[in-house]
Amino acid sequence: MTVNRKVTVNVRRVGAVIATVAAIFAVSALAQTAKDVKGATPLVAIPNEPPPKLIVDPPIPEQLALGRVFIQYRTENLRLLPVFGNSALTVSPRIGHLHYYVDGQSWPIVDTSGETVVLVGLPPGAHQLKLELADATHKPIPECNKVVEFIIPPRK
Question: In the chain, N or C: fewer CB atoms in 10 Å?
């Protein structure tokens, strides 16, 4: 076999491997539907909706060291929207919002953004953040709350 023939055979083998890998990735991408990634469409009612859940991460350590509190969270089975009132209680898929309380304050901060909770300007020391999911009438949803405790280090 000549050198050119060997190179041609090897190029074909490499091409076949690349094509196989590309086909596997294409099948994987096709196997994951929009519903798999985004969940059910918000345009169709969900019968027997599972209860909502609140998942909260600890503060991001690098930011905490700088005196900034960044806490990421997400919800399951509850869409966060700025929609309020008794009529919204019957909407499916379920809607609501987040309440959070800093250091035991008696009134909640209301958030419908779904974005990271950011706290700045707290003095150094121990702090507590209570997060809870609430329905469209501001009633807390049972078992959908978390308390995050953290320490802001002294300023240098």
Answer: C
Tens of pLDDT, residues 96-112? 999 999 999 999 999 99
Cβ atoms of residues 111 and 98 within 8 Å: yes
DSSP 8-state symbol, 125? E
Q: Which CATH architecture has domain 53-152?
A: Sandwich (2.60)
Beta-carbon contacts of residue 115 (< 8 Å; ≥ 6 apart): none
Q: What is the mean pLDDT of the chain?
A: 87
- CB-based contact 80:128 (threshold 8 Å): no
Residues 6+ apart with CB under 8 A from 85: 136, 137
Domain ranges of the chain: 3-31, 53-152
The predicted model gives 49-61 an average pLDDT of 96
Look up residue 68 and give its DSSP letter: -
pLDDT bucket at 29, cuts 50 / 70 / 90: low
pTM for the predicted model, two decimal places: 0.73
Residues 155, 138 contacting (CB under 8 angstroms): no
Enter the tokens of residue 104.
């035991």
Q: What is the residue whose two structure tokens read 């507590």? A: 128
